[in-house]
Amino acid sequence: MDSTELLKKVRRIEIKTRGLSSHLFSGGYHSAFKGRGMSFSEVRLYYPGDDVRAIDWNVTARTGDPYVKVFEEERENTVMLLVDVSGSAVFGSHTQFKAEYLTELCAVLAFSAIANNDKVGVLLFSDRIELYIPPKKGRQHILLIIREILTFKPVGKGTDIGAAMRYIHNGLKKRCVCFVLSDFLGTNYEEAMRVLARRHDLIGLHCWDPLERDLPDVGVLRVADAETGAQTWVDTTSTRLRRQYWQTFEAHTQSTQALFRRAGADFLSLCTNQPYVHELLKFFAQRSKVIAHG
Fold first, then answer.
1. What mean pLDDT is predicted for residues 219-244?
2. Which residues pair with residue 84 across a beta bridge?
3. In which region does residue 269 sit, left (phi positive, over 0), alpha (psi from -120 to 50) or beta (all else)?
4. 179 FRET partner, CA 20 to 30 A, in 30, 39, 119, 168?
5. What pLDDT digit, counting tens, does each position of 164-212 carry?
6. How many domains does the chain have?
7. CA-based Rg of the chain, rounded to a whole angstrom?
8. Same-domain check for residues 10 and 155
9. How many CB atoms sit inside 10 A of residue 4's CB?
10. Is residue 53 domain-shared with residue 185, that is, in the same domain?
11. Among candidates 207, 2, 15, which has minimal Cα distance to 100?
12. Are 287 and 242 contained in the same domain?
């Protein structure tokens, strides 16, 4: 697309998702993703009853009076969006491709984050690390993220979710909220997920197209794998084949959800032909309850 068309598309996404993010923010984003760490605030004179483990021995030695370190809860989060841009992300059978749906999801999460004064960063991945945008604040930064996701042309076609998770684990030492947006067709990422989830707040957003679950009865078709390019003929008139197709999708979704649960991470499955706002609101509300009782 040319620059004028791109600007219009970015603006349309901004208008739509900023309004939705305000709705999401008031509906639970803030309470669902509170800052959970403790950061140094100041030193003050020691008072009887203070924890002796909090004594700042350097200041105490320098002044001759006992001082303690005071910490406060961190309110600011860093939000990382790990976005799958592999070959299967361009698939779409309804009004928009999965890639466009992912872009909107990223935008609404990003605008919700900056409304909470959080930083937002992005990692685009396929079977390799395609692009890393470090976390920052501000509207212009979010618009940059939207433009990159809309226009980026990945080199790889396959999916390596584990590599993306290891990249974030190695690069970000401070705890952050990590959203992984993918159809999760990759394999062998369970160990990387467990390691990442131990340090960071990890959420998997499973994005899928209806045609990936429900095979239509339209005769004999030649189909191609979006990631490998392999082609084959399938007879969609077969009731047995369509049932197996549905069962394979459901089994994959359930097994992916189980992987996240075992790692202590959250998981939400979203279909591209359904509005995502209601599901996100429910998800935020559930997280808020867990945090409130945790």
1. 85
2. 125
3. beta
4. 39
5. 999 999 999 888 999 999 999 889 999 999 999 999 999 999 999 898 8
6. 2
7. 23
8. yes
9. 8
10. no
11. 207
12. yes
